[in-house]
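Morning. Coffee machine broken again, so started the prediction first thing and wrote up yesterday's gels while waiting. Chain of 126 residues, entered below exactly as on the submission form.
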Amino acid sequence: QLHLVESRGGLVQPGGSLRLSCAASGFTLDGYAIGWFRQAPGKEHERVSCISSHDGSTYYAESVKGRFTISRDNAKNTVYLQMNSLKPEDTAVYYCAARASAIYYNTPFKGEYDYWGQGTQVTVSS
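Came back before lunch.
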């Protein structure tokens, strides 16, 4: 079965850091654009960051720009989201998603991604 698996999130104090990983099961991420999304209680699904499949292009939401970094290691079949200077408003369930199309790698539309992870809770609180 083809799917994505996110690493465990956790509880982090404001100002702290956390790295999430997204690993593919049953297929290789090479050739897929990857997006990280999040959803907080009572809020819309939010596109956080994306990385293209072929040229390393990246996208960041304004709310995380300068604090989060997306990267990929195709040899390990894994994509990472390094989150620094975390704020309480970063609290959400984080999901990774894979998109096979080489165009519009940072699409915000959930339906245009082919595979999704199960989500992992990140809580930023003192």
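The radius of gyration is 13 Å. Going to sketch it on the whiteboard this afternoon.
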